[in-house]
Amino acid sequence: MRDMLEGSQAIARAVALCRPQVVAAYPITPQTHIVENLSKLVADGKLTTELVSVESEFSAASVALGAAAAGSRAYTASSSQGIMLMSEVLFNIAGLRIPLVLTCANRAIGAPLSIWNDQQDSMAVRDAGWIQLYCADNQEAVDTTIQAYRIAERCEIPVMVCVDGFVLTHTMEAIDLPTQEQVDGFLPPYRFNRALDPRRPISIGTLVAPEYFSEVRHANHKALERAIDEIEAADRDWAEVSGRSSGGLVEVLGDPEARIGILTLGSATGTLLEALDEYPDLGPVRLIRLRCFRPFPFEALRRACAGLEQLAILERALSPGLGGIVGTEVRAALADLEGTLHIRDYAVGLGGRDIPLSTLPRVLEALAVPESERFRILDVNLEQLPEEDR
Amino acid sequence: MSEQPIADLRRHQPRFSGLESGHRACTGCGEALGARLVTEAAGPDVLVANATGCLEVFTTAWPQSSWRVPWLHSLFENAGAIASGMEAALKAQGRPTKVLAFAGDGGTFDIGFQALSGMLERDHNVLYVCYDNEAYMNTGIQRSSSTPHAATTTTSPAGKARMGKRHLKKDIVSIIAAHHVAYAATASVAYPSDLRKKVRRAMAVEGATFLQVHSPCPLGWGHDGAVSIEVARLAVQTGLFPLVELERGSLTGVMPIREVRPVRDYLRAQKRFVHLFADDPRAREELDHIQALADHNIERYGLRGDRPDALDSEGADTVRRGGARWA
User: Fold this and answer.
1) What is the pTM of this model?
2) Which residues of B fall within a CB distance of 8 Å from A21?
3) Is A197 near chain B, with CB under 8 Å?
4) What is the DSSP letter of B148?
5) Which single residue of A99, A230, A264, B175 could bond A268 by disulfide (Cβ 3.0 to 4.6 Å)?
6) How close does chain B come to A38, measured CA to CA in Å?
7) Whole domain around residue A330: which residue ranges?
8) Residue A189 contacts B, CB cutoff 8 Å
């Protein structure tokens, strides 16, 4: 049955369907509606969970860690500064191989203060060792949340479900919420092999000397690489249950035979699809959506880009002094095509800057210039800056 | 009664210990002793959340561990929050297991204070134990907000212009008590029966409880490891470390001092205060100042006992059994 739901409300309902036993919550815009909705579900008796209203995001992640280690399915969510504050815990959760799910309502990081959307927050913790899945719309956010628990628990790797703040979290959308039976059938009760238990005392999180540290890192890295199969399987199996795929690792839209491609993550996908309809005279364009950013899907990306002559990357974050983050990684993955594939990288939609439909023709126009910069921030109004900053 | 060697008696009367010997603590480490006493009294049905610090480092190092209780170390500043999460999980599962949080003074007074305060405010069923050795010992003796006034550390060294730490030791137990938790107490490794009794009292409470265990650090305090207990006892007998119990914010128990010792006896036993015994008017002033702090504690908590010293025997005959079952 389809309900008209706000993104955050839909995500909260999806989380509830996963039956988390512990939810740790702290407010931050634009994530707040998720924990508000979860709190309301608890208050209305529709969700039985230990709701821990913590005093910071740092503690939210820590409570989720402690709960999952003690044998309960756990959930938390945050954004922006909150992700930054919990970043030390995020690395710790992944290093300890604790399975839990976090929703990142993507938002810019200050300074300057901005409450609006970009993806600098999740990109800043891309090396934490979490799986990162980027959702194109709210239906996907619902489906991905459910898949995320199965992935996390099968791989013992935490999963960050990334949804664009406001663009998704605060937007009403017709959502097909699965039934409890569908979710229960797909997601077995939480069972963590290393759960703390007095009957079988184990030590977790010991000091590790140099003679073992590299091995731990190797095991972590390999586990992330192997998670690729579980991510694909979860999407495939959930599609059998729900009738909907969320795009696997990399989704190819538009004209799959086109020589010109645009690659993006998250909700910009919908904007670009709409733009393809709006500007039919632009010629064939292949739209490539990176749903899974960690582990990095090298093979799926190479398949998706096969036959391309030009590729524009649109991303909502950057690494100052380097350029694009996604772009740099995509270039590395496609390095063997260098010479035949012309790649340009654009940061768009920073700090909530709108990405209008006209972005598409402007990007394609910029892409066609052979001697252009490898990376730039699109839509910078230089006249707003003093001369020396231009 | 036959004369059996002590070791033999111990074999026949196994006592549960959550922390095995063979770890890497320094000789005379107060924290190691404190952790052993706490886990003995708490028994085997616990989960431990341990902050980063000496205790975590000297008891582990993969692939070895001294812990016989389920134990998790996450970070330096989140023991209170990790314990909160564990407790929430146990509650959701309907398990009666008690959660213990262990941290040093740095992880409690300073960097972990916020997570601890949150844990207390939400009244999680956790016994939080702070092993207070009055400085960052794991990183090589740097001052914390628990370091006593005038003590020298590597970041509050005594020198021509300074007499050690300029600030006062934070009164953490009062701050904890201000959260109106059911039980908050101070204890000392020099009084093991009193310490065990306080652990058991806290374990019986359904809610957040706190125990501050004064734990000498021979390396950081500058005394021989063989006299740790004597030094810790002097801290109590001078009034510098009062042993108190607070319930819902009100003082409900103190360990009386029959023969109050001058603070000089305590300070002279430790190299961290050696500069206070120089022929220097500032040193004399600081000694007077520290004596005044101890006198204030004695007045404030009514520590002067007219009856004989507590023999520290309460609960000493209570042995936690179950070692064989849980071994």
Assistant:
1) 0.95
2) 88-89, 92-93
3) yes
4) P
5) A264
6) 16
7) 250-389
8) no
